[in-house]
Amino acid sequence: MITNIYVQNFKAFSEAEISPGQLNILTGLNGMGKSTFLQSLLLLRQSYRQNTLLDKGLLLNGDYIEIGKGKDAYAMYGSAEKLITFEIEWDEAIELHGEFQSRDELDLLPTHQLKISDEKVWQQALFQDRWQYLNTERVSPKTFFPASVYHIEQIHTLGNHGEFTTHFIAKNQRKEIPIKTLAHPKANSLALLAQLDAWLGEISPNVRLNSVLYDEFEIARLSYKFEVGEELTDDMKPTNVGFGLTYVLPVVTAVLFANQGDLLIIENPESHLHPQGQARLGKLFALAAEQGVQLFIETHSDHVLNGVRVATKQQFISPEKVGIFFFERLMETDEHCTDIIQPIIDENGRINKWPLGFFDEWDNQLDELLK
Question: What pTM was computed for the model?
Answer without folding.
Answer: 0.93
